[in-house]
Amino acid sequence: MSFRTLSLGLAAATVLAGTALPAFAQDSIYVPLFTYRTGAFAGSGTFIADGMHDYLEMLNQRDGGIGGVKLVLEECETGYDTKKGVECYEAVKGKNPVIVNPWSTGITLPLIPRASVDKIPILSMAYGLSASARGDIFPWVFNPPSTYWDGLSIIIKYIGEKEGGLEKLKGKKIGFIHLDAAFGKEPIPLLQELAKDIGFEVALYPVAAQDMQNQSSQWLSARRDRPDYVIMWGWGSMNGAAVKEAVRSGYPMDKFYSVWWPSEDDAKSGGAGAKGFKELNWHAVGANFPALQDIQKHVIDKGLSKASKDKVGEVLYNRGVYNSLLIAEGIAMAQKLTGKKAVTGEDVRRGMENIKLDPARLKELGLEGFTEPLALSCTDHNGHRPAFMQEWDGAKWVKISDPIEPMTDRVKAQLDGAAKDYAEKNAGWPKRTEACDKAS
Amino acid sequence: MFYREAGQFKTTYVSDSAIFPLRQDRIGLGFIIAAAYALAFLGSDFLLQAVMIPFLVFSLAAIGLNILTGYTGLLSLGTGAFMGVGAYACYKLMTAFPGVNVIVWIFVSGFFSAAVGALFGLPSLRIKGFYLAVATLAAQFFLQWCFIRIPWLVNYNVSGALDAPLRTLFGTPIMGPNATSQTRYLLVLTIVILLTWIASNLVHGRIGRMWIAIRDMDLAAELMGIRPLQTKLLAFAVSSYYCGVAGALLVFLWYGGAEYDVFNINQSFFILFMVIIGGLGSLIGSFFGAALIFIMPIVLGMALPALMSPFGLSVGSDTIEHLRFMITGALIIFFLIVEPHGLARLWQIGKQKLLVWPFPY
After folding, report:
1. How far is A17 from chain B (nearest CA, A)?
2. Do B177 and A306 touch (CB under 8 A)?
3. Of the candidates B44, B46, B36, B82, the residue with the CA atom closest to the CA atom of residue B62
4. Which candidate in A414, B89, B211, B253 could, as Cys together with B72 as Cys, close a disulfide (CB 3.0–4.6 Å)?
5. Contact B350 A116 (CB under 8 A)
6. Touching check for B303 and chain A: CB below 8 Å?
7. What is the largest CA-CA distance in chain B?
């Protein structure tokens, strides 16, 4: 390579590096979406990204944005990688985002302490740090509608009821197969505490991120231990592989429960044998809602989405819609509270604290019956809403239970302990200075 | 024309064996360092926080691996784990002794990494090449296992993650969320310059010659009186020291918090690629490698949409991600075909051409 070409190349690279980031007009609201359509977790991330994008794009197309202000949507690809997620955060920070959705517990953790400094609220919907449900300690972090601890307590409660009372779980063995990362390990302390209180036995089956596709050794141990129930905390390709392995190892599928992440595709990978597999959910499956019909009309039919029409209504697509519903409600509430059109991150933080999704509001949004009502407040950033159980019937998810309340009494102690612990360990953790709105 | 040696006479051995014998080189280096410091006041938050700090951190880790792989010829796949040891040691130290300034602990944490590195370097007397690479791979997996399995390392944190507490230097926050990217950058820059200067003195002196002798022909080196075990272990210790400090900087001055997964095998490969692309056995190559592997994808991510939009092509973030992989991969192959000795060799050729221009002879 001649020196001349090299220097030309370097010069070109320098010029490119210097190009300024695109600036956004003042009369718009910038909503960055962190997505992972690539990498090992793309199997889950793609549908969520589509759902998130399509709902907000539908508001843009149908209503011209929120409150007459157009939303500027921009995706940043994280690949579920903390390094890239932090890079994305730095890239969007300067453009005045009103809210950030990290969509990964690993990315959420480093962002939590920064949120209050940068004045950007974080929406980690039902993932991230469970303790961040405490609004008085984490004013900038929101994780509605349920924490992982709520989720675990709901599953245990459901199993207990099936056995005929929680105390009947005494002497039983519950297997816990989880992704061996912060996400999967978070429910373990609560599980162990419940085990001590109720008297059941726990068998842990950790799956390292690099072995997600190969869980034969874990399921071999499960076959040896013969747990009465298996609970799964998995994500990405781990879910599909677990269902497949469970079927292959002959584990009774009606005793196999999961937290809310497996999708249709994950269940399908188990083939016909996956029938009976159960998971928690807190929103409806299917596309028979006016808002979702509007997405098809205004976004998908116009070719503005990456999703195909048949994906609308699937578990993870609707999860993405729910996530965007929260963003949109936070923005709308912020506009109502401040009277401003182009709201900022600080306004949206206030808006999120005042979210009130009652049945009337849901109906107005075209999502009647889509989900349980939700109301957040200054101290409660989670809601600790009930979730229901759904079962895979071989072709689709079927709702099989009424909403089940979490065991709040048990979860609360754990949550308060963890929140206090976090604030203590991070010496100098700021006291909440943000004023609470009267309404909340 | 650009560069003239003429008129610069060396009258002592010291000046003749200097690392930068030419006045222009010394001025150039001074200029680069001054520009790096000036960047702290001119650069945007994004440039400092998302580009320069990680670039410097990875450069430091690449220097560490280069000492081992480039100068001593011992292949290692455990870089990520050794970085992790530094990060976890730093976390334990600064939470156990909050009164001592954290900068002290950043430097001390490297010694823990050095000890662990030397321990896993013990087999290097008997095995080398691929066999040693596999031994260090064991270090990678074993240490990563420790990071997940020993809750003591993260002070029994439920989430199993490290997070940077607030720490100050002369009353200015340098760690934790309140530290500005400017102060963090200045701190990282100073540490990297200091350690690079020490590394430069090491590899150009007696110890560096011992390492190079071992790399080029270990039998001959032994016959000349160099003791292989001590020399190799020293290389492992020094290399791990650098990686450990880089790991501590990575978590506490860049991320501000991290899971164990940051120190996985991919991180080790990432650093190894930097060393190979940058140039084995070259300190400046470590910086070039880090720039190519880390900064170029960021530049591509910004440049590709800008380049494509005039043609009416709008691409999604996922397509850009794939394009990044493809272009970076193609460029790595291209550079290695054009110059197997890495970017550092290209730099050297460029300098030589400038020295003799316009009369190449």
Report:
1. 6
2. no
3. B82
4. B211
5. no
6. yes
7. 68
Tens digits of residue pLDDT in B262-308? 888 988 998 999 999 998 989 999 999 999 989 988 888 888 878 87
Element (H, E) at A279: strand A278-281
What is the 8-class DSSP label of residue A212?
T
- What's the rounded Cα separation, in Å, for the pair B361 and B353? 10
Q: What gap in Å lies between CA A27 and CA A70, rounded to an integer?
A: 8
Residues whose CB falls within 8 Å of the CB of residue A49, separated by 6 or more in sequence, listed in order: A33, A35, A36, A37, A75, A306, A320
Q: Which string of DSSP letters, residue by residue, matches A157-186?
A: HHHHHHHTSGGGGTT-EEEEEEESSHHHHT
Interface of A with B in 105-124 (CB under 8 A): 105-106, 109-110, 112-114, 116-117
A152-169 pLDDT per residue, tens: 999 999 999 888 888 888
**CB contact (8 A) between residue A110 and residue B98:** no
Judging contacts by C-beta atoms under 8 Å, the chain B residues touching residue A305 are none
Residues of A in contact with B309 (CB under 8 A): none
Residue matched to tokens 């509270």: A337
List Cβ neighbours of A82 (8 Å cut-off, separation of 6 or more).
Answer: A104, A106, A107, A110, B255, B258, B259, B261, B262
Q: Please, what is the Cα angle at B130 between B127 and B135, to 5 degrees?
A: 60
CA distance A438 to A366: 28
- The reply to whether the predicted model has a pTM over 0.95 is no
Do the strands A356-357 and A374-375 form a parallel or antiparallel pair, or are they unpaired? antiparallel
HSE, side-chain direction, 13 A CA sphere, residue A120: 26
